[in-house]
Structure formats: structure tokens, C-alpha cells
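Quick note —
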Amino acid sequence: MMFRLLLLLFVIIPLIELYVLIEVGRGIGGLTTILLCVFTALLGGILIRLQGLMTLLSAQRELANGGLPAEHVLHGLMLGMAGLLLFTPGFITDAIGFLLLIPAVRRLLIMRFAVSPVMHTQQDDGIIDVEVISHDNKKIH
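Predicted structure written out below.
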């Protein structure tokens, strides 16, 4: 399983990216393709900086209200992944990186992969289940 993942990450995806870059370069020209790659990296950097700042401020508000900013941490990690993808030359990685800049997409990924299914189905119905044991060791429910 790990070998397949590494093969995908380091061999197949770069080859596909290279193919796409060549085809785009054929269509719009080599210099235009390079400028487009640089532009997407710059735009991505600006957007990641803004999104990161908003995530940080939101996490600080959560902490100030006594909550744990666990989801904000996951958003931050995904923004870091988006940054890596956007600074990697290629249009496929750029597309995935820009998708990770959309908060709804990040939330969907967090709910799908990072949060356990038990947490999704658990609801607080206001009922507390207790067991009372009297002094003569008889259980009362």
C-alpha cells in the first residue's frame, strides 16, 4: 500500500503534470505557460496568507471562548498542504491547492477523514445515565 502511494506521489503525478504542462505550452506557448505557473503560485501565496490569518484569528476567538481549536488546527494543516501544492509547478496540483483554499471543501474533508463517525452520530439529548448504589450495596437504576 505504501509503495503504491509513493509511486503515485513521486512518479505518476509528476509525469501527468509534465504531460499537461507540455500540452498547455503547445496550446498557449512556453513563456505564457511559465508565467501562468508563476502567477498561480503568487496568487496562491496571497490567498493562503489571508486564509491562514483568518484561521488563526478564528482559533484565537475559540480559545478566548474556552473552546479547543482542533478544527482550526486541521484547517491550518490543509492550508499548508495547499501551499505546497500551489508552489509545485503544474496545473493539476494548482487545481487541488486552490480547492483546499475553499473553507467548505476543507470542512468536508475534515468531516470525511479526520473526525470519527461516532462523533457525527452522537447527539446530546439532555439525558444523563447514572447508577446509584445504596449503602447496603443494592443497585438502583
